[in-house]
Specification:
By secondary structure, the chain is an alpha/beta fold. The chain has 2 domains: about 120 residues, Aspartate Aminotransferase, domain 1, CATH 3.90.1150; about 220 residues, Type I PLP-dependent aspartate aminotransferase-like (Major domain) (Aspartate Aminotransferase, domain 2, 3-Layer(aba) Sandwich), CATH 3.40.640. Helix content is about 35%, strand content about 15%. It is built from 10 helices and 12 strands. The protein has a 7-stranded mixed sheet, sandwiched between helices. The protein is globular and about 60 Å long. It starts with about 25 loop residues before the first strand and ends with a helix. Bound molecules: pyridoxal-5'-phosphate (PLP). Pyridoxal-5'-phosphate binds next to helix 3.
């Protein structure tokens, strides 16, 4: 707190990112990064673009990248908005599309940046409780509102919604924007992007950080009909005209065009997830059904924080949220096959010392 602060600053509750510690031989399963590297073609593109041309500003509208995303998802480049990570795309979405007189709806257990943006932009919001089984019950969203935002699959539960249910939600709210945050959709979910053609109120947000293994480049995008994208562009150009640097633009373009690499990595992650789930269940864990690159699991004999601390002592980092209802759970990212084995080995050690 300082007398120099604008008054709003002391009211903010900033997001707390997962740790990025420097511990030797660490198994880092706390921030849902992809354990496999980016497409070699993306790395090659970064090297090629690392030249004297960096003295110039990048393309402010990232046209080549937007065209590549549009071609991949079979939409028009004008229907694609890109930003500095999907966090920035989401921030502009909260400001440009989700700030209305009626409250914004999102789940009570969800991506913890949503309440942060709501507070930053003064958006009145209602948190809709998840059902007993931690799923999103869409009938609970059948109430007056100014907009809806949901991740599919949800984070940190990993539980997915069926596309038909998303469509019913979007169709039931023609007067409000409905935003589907698909950060993890490539690990088994079904994208709502094809529905954007039919529904003018639907915006779908995705990221290059997870399935495309480019968290370090910070690239995310949104797809929707032109008036929605126009709102995001107006906010962006009132904030930062060049959010994506040149290297991020060429790397993410090469990554989205390298379908083989993408398919191979995500299949490996999905196969490892199946192995981790059965390993955890065999050891007495409750594991929520995950369609993401992480699982959300609790053990009857341990408090979540305690188990996270014991894993940390064994150089395995997972994420714990000290929040009502999910306090017993750990969110465990799916690592390489070897990292998953080390996780299970550390758990065996902990369980044996009970
Ligand atoms: C549900 C969800 N949405 C969006 C993001 C933001 O991803 P990024 O800003 O790296 O694109 C995350 C990151 O963990 C997430 O979990």
């Amino acid at each position: 707190m300082s007398k120099y602060w604008s008054p709003i600053v002391s009211t903010l509750k900033p997001y707390v990112a997962g740790e990025q510690p420097r511990i030797a031989n660490l198994v880092k399963l706390n921030t849902n990064e992809n354990p496999y590297g980016p497409s070699p073609k993306a790395l090659e593109a970064i090297k090629r673009a690392s030249d004297d041309g960096l003295r110039l500003y990048p393309d402010p509208v990232a046209l080549d990248l937007r065209r590549a995303i549009a071609a991949h998802h079979d939409v028009d480049a004008d229907e694609v908005f890109v930003g500095n990570g999907s966090d920035e795309v989401l921030a502009h979405t909260f400001m440009g599309l989700l700030n209305h007189d009626a409250p914004l709806l999102y789940p009570d257990i969800t991506y913890s940046f949503y309440p942060v943006y709501s507070l930053l932009y003064g958006i009145e919001s209602q948190q809709v409780p998840l059902a007993e089984d931690f799923g999103i019950r869409l009938s609970d969203y059948d109430r007056p509102c100014g907009g809806i935002i949901l991740p599919n699959p949800n984070a940190p539960t990993g539980i997915g919604l069926r596309l038909a249910d998303i469509e019913a939600l979007v169709a039931a709210h023609p007067e409000q924007p409905v935003v589907i945050d698909e950060a993890y959709v490539d690990f088994g979910g079904e994208s709502a992007i094809p529905l954007t053609r039919k529904y003018p109120n639907l915006l779908v947000v995705q990221t290059f950080s997870k399935s495309r293994s480019l968290a370090g480049m910070r690239v995310g995008f949104a797809i929707g009909q032109r008036p929605l994208i126009d709102a995001l562009e107006r906010v962006k150009d009132s904030f930062n005209s060049y959010p994506l640097d040149k290297l991020a633009q060429v790397a993410s373009r090469a990554a989205i065009e390298d379908v083989d690499w993408f398919e191979t990595c995500r299949e490996r992650i999905i196969a490892s997830r199946t192995r981790v789930v059965s390993g955890l269940e065999q050891r007495g864990f409750r594991v929520l059904p995950s369609l993401a690159n992480f699982v959300f699991a609790s053990h009857p004999d341990f408090a979540g924080a305690d188990l996270a601390a014991k894993l940390r002592e064994r150089a395995v980092l997972v994420r714990h949220f000290a929040k009502p209802r999910i306090d017993p759970f750990l969110r465990i990212s799916i690592g390489t096959e070897e990292e998953c084995d080390r996780l299970i080995g550390a758990l065996d050690d902990i369980l044996a010392s009970r």
